[in-house]
Ion-translocating oxidoreductase complex subunit D
Amino acid sequence: MRDVLLATLPGVAVLTWLFGLGTLSNIIIASAFALGFEAIILKLRRRPIAFYLKDLSALVTAILLAVAMPPGSSWWLIAVGMVASIIIAKHLYGGLGYNPFNPAMVGYVVLLVSFPQYMTLWLAPEALASQGALFDLHTLGQMIIGAAPLDALTAATPLDVFKQSNGMTAEDIYQNEAVFSHGFIAGAGYEWVNLAFLLGGIFLLFRKVFTWHAPIAMLVTLGLFAAIFYDGGSSSSGGSPLLHLFSGATMLGAFFIVTDPVSSATSNKGRLIYGASIGALVYIIRAWGNYPDAVAFAVLLMNFAAPFIDYYTLPRTYGHTKAKRATRTENS
């Protein structure tokens, strides 16, 4: 858990640099609610509070949900997300190690379905910079309590733009949409955020926190689907492979969400199937579904399927076949 927290630092730093202090306020508020809810539930369950808080799992859930939410989200929105993540998705099923679904993604989906108008108000880096709001504590305070005029500071994300620009070629979108004016492949800011989380993911791979199977399978499958259906950028194109790989929550999902050891598949073969299925679902929902960034939905759908994958992919117990043959020989 400590390594995961350290690995999020590059992504948090880039988010703060591009979108202002709103990311840090999300993290602080989410962490406070997560630790508070965790302590309350542990007290009610008569578990040692200090012992379980030290495992840092609540902080990891808080930070993953915080960075997935729009910077500067209202305090009550974060609180609702942490209730869904910590109380419902984690402790309702028995606590750490027993949750069948990724807690952070449960919280995110609950918020996205319940409060879509707040979860889709992503800040525009160039708008914040031009208004001097990147590090304006007064504006941030208004955003946290829900009093800031967010409509003047928000813009569509690159994935939103591609989904809403029917009839335009990819070249037209890149030339005419402001979100791509300061970016190279995936829009202003978003590609740098994904590169930062990719760096954190490489650190976790180096530390052997998880194996490469699930994240690489997800990224390869997502890129493959995007390449097959890109068709050179026609009006029906869903975006290039690079756009899908370096926009939205792709790298955060691949290295920090898909790799959750509790809610994912357990064998290497199972992780390949699990990761590849998530990559396919991400593209399918992005291209033909109602949500432009589908990482959370894809992960939760495959959390359902993880036990089924494990049933057919877990390696046979060592010596099981030999013991069975030996029994047949004795009986004959």
Observations:
- The longest helix spans residues 22-44.
- The chain has 19 helices and no strands.
